[in-house]
Write a structure and sequence with these properties.
- The structure is a single chain.
- The protein has 420 residues and is of the alpha/beta class.
- It folds into three domains: 154 residues, Adenylosuccinate Synthetase, Chain A, domain 1; 91 residues, Adenylosuccinate Synthetase, subunit A, domain 2 (Orthogonal Bundle); 148 residues, Adenylosuccinate Synthetase, subunit A, domain 3 (Adenylosuccinate Synthetase, Chain A, domain 3), CATH 3.90.170.
- The protein is built from twelve helices and 20 strands.
- The strands form five sheets. Strands 9-7-5-2-10-1-11-15-19-20 form a ten-stranded mixed sheet, sandwiched between helices.
- Helix 2 crosses helix 7, helix 4 crosses helix 5 and helix 4 packs parallel to helix 6.
- The protein is globular.
- The two termini are 24 Å apart.
- The structure holds guanosine-5'-diphosphate, 6-O-phosphoryl inosine monophosphate and magnesium ion (MG).
- The site of 6-O-phosphoryl inosine monophosphate has 24 residues, from helix 5.
């Protein structure tokens, strides 16, 4: 069976920490979408590591980590990341597998990402500029190159042909950038990746399933950044929701069992796009400061606000979430009041649905207030020891979303996770 861990908001919900925590219960940890736009933070003996391409199970010696076909792979980032995990004593070549169908991010994809954002001007998406959009466009446009192509004798010719196409597009944008250094790194990294186990991912994972192995699919980004269901066009270019597991790994839907949905106890977003519960005041600043809300990939300050139950309810619905994990609860420890968005007021009417064009609609959040617990909860390890005001808050989320809150994270470290 496959269980899934994914983010329910606009990313950065703490997926890396949670995957690392649950990894001992599984045999295979697999990324199914996204690429180096992701930044998943883990703490190992107090030392911080941020993973962009490698699944967050890599620090568990006996676990297989698979980069699935739905991922887009930046070889240069991947190589650097392998070197950084090696510093922790990880023999990454032993248990890291890559699907041959995984699409490659070329140096020109990154340039195109920049050119496209520049051309959008004030309407820019706020992309991480890692080449994600252009690479997925080449996948759906049926032009892209995949990991398996690296083994083709004429790979260089295929590369040059796609590069020439990209060059024309860059010329249309009137954009030029010297990519020669990146290109050198890219070709160096090709030789590096050839030393890995490049597999037919769908047969590989289905064989594991037949053997009764337990698979954990690790989502990147969050449901509100899903290309179909997020706040389009301010989204990423992949299906971040549970359905993406099937296409991103080559497994049938009935193989999916638990869907663990992660949400922060508040909400953040990085990049442009609608965010109804965003705080533009000192409370927002405080949450950013205490929660250290700066992007793990780009370092940009994250926009902060209250938890949005309308959006969360939508995310639970489209993902089929079976268990909720609430992270960064400790960040709210010092607040004297917390708010929860229970509906949007649109044209004077209260609605509990996420509209198609949230970016063009004035959705005013309707809030319910809760008194803060005003207690340091970071050392608590039993649910019964949580302050009553916190459990009231959690009960409310539970009842509204009709999905059980099963775990509460109260700090960045592995052991700071309380079972409800
Ligand atoms: P991801 O992209 O979903 O893996 O999340 P990020 O790593 O981008 O951002 C989450 C940040 O919050 C990281 O810096 C984590 O170390 C940190 N974090 C995760 N869980 C908690 C928690 O419960 N409390 C606090 N204070 N920090 C947390
Ligand atoms: P993790 O896995 C937060 C956002 C970008 C931008 C939009 C499109 O760490 O949760 P892209 O580079 O995909 O074209 O950017 O999506 N974004 C993320 N925000 N966490 C992420 O990943 C993100 N990956 C992309 O900021 O708004
Ligand atoms: Mg992140």
């Amino acid at each position: 069976m496959i269980d899934v861990i994914l983010g329910l908001q606009w990313g950065d919900e703490g997926k890396g920490k949670i995957v690392d925590y649950f990894a001992p219960n599984y045999d295979v940890i697999a990324r199914f979408q996204g690429g180096p736009n992701a930044g998943h933070t883990l703490y190992l003996n107090g030392k911080k590591v941020v993973l962009h391409q490698i699944p967050s199970g890599i620090f568990h010696e006996d676990k297989i980590n698979l980069i699935g076909n739905g991922v887009v792979l930046d070889l240069v980032t991947f190589k650097k990341e392998c070197e950084s995990v090696a510093a922790f004593g990880v023999d990454y070549k032993k248990n890291l597998y890559i699907s041959e169908r995984t699409h490659l991010i070329l140096p020109t994809h990154r340039a195109l990402d920049k050119a496209s954002e520049l051309a959008k001007g004030n309407d820019k998406i706020g992309s991480t500029l890692k080449g994600i959009g252009p690479t997925y466009m080449d996948k759906t446009g049926r032009n892209g190159l995949r990991v398996g192509n690296l083994l083709d004798k004429d790979f260089k010719t295929q590369y040059e042909s796609l590069k020439a196409k990209h060059q024309q597009m860059l010329d249309n944008y009137n954009f030029s950038e010297d990519i020669s250094a990146w290109e050198n790194d890219f070709f160096e990294a090709i030789e590096f990746i050839k030393e890995f186990k490049i597999v037919n991912g769908e047969y590989f994972i289905n064989e594991k399933l037949r053997e009764g192995k337990r698979i954990l699919a690790e989502g990147a980004q969050g449901s509100m950044l899903d290309v179909d269901f997020g706040t389009f066009p301010f989204v990423t270019s992949s299906n971040t929701i549970s359905a993406g597991v099937c296409t991103g790994l080559g497994v049938a839907p009935q193989k999916i069992k638990e869907v663990f949905g992660i949400t922060k106890a508040y909400c953040t977003r990085v990049g442009s796009g609608p965010f109804p519960t965003e705080l533009h005041d000192e409370t927002g600043e405080l949450i950013r400061k205490i929660g250290n809300e700066f992007g793990s990939t780009t370092g940009r300050p994250r926009r902060c606000g209250w938890i949005d139950l309308v959006a969360l309810d939508f995310a639970c619905m489209i993902n089929g979430v079976t268990q909720l994990i609430i992270t960064k609860t400790d960040v709210l420890d010092s607040l004297d009041e917390l708010k929860v968005c229970t509906a949007y007021k649109i044209d004077g009417e209260e609605k509990k649905c996420v509209p198609m064009q949230l970016n063009k609609i004035d959705a005013v959040p309707v809030y319910k207030s809760f008194p803060g617990w005003q207690k340091d909860i970071t050392a608590i390890s039993s649910y019964n020891d949580f302050p009553g005001k916190l459990t009231e808050y959690l009960d409310y989320l539970n009842n509204y979303l009709k999905v059980p809150v099963k775990y509460i994270s109260n700090g960045p470290n592995r052991e700071q996770l309380v079972t409800a």
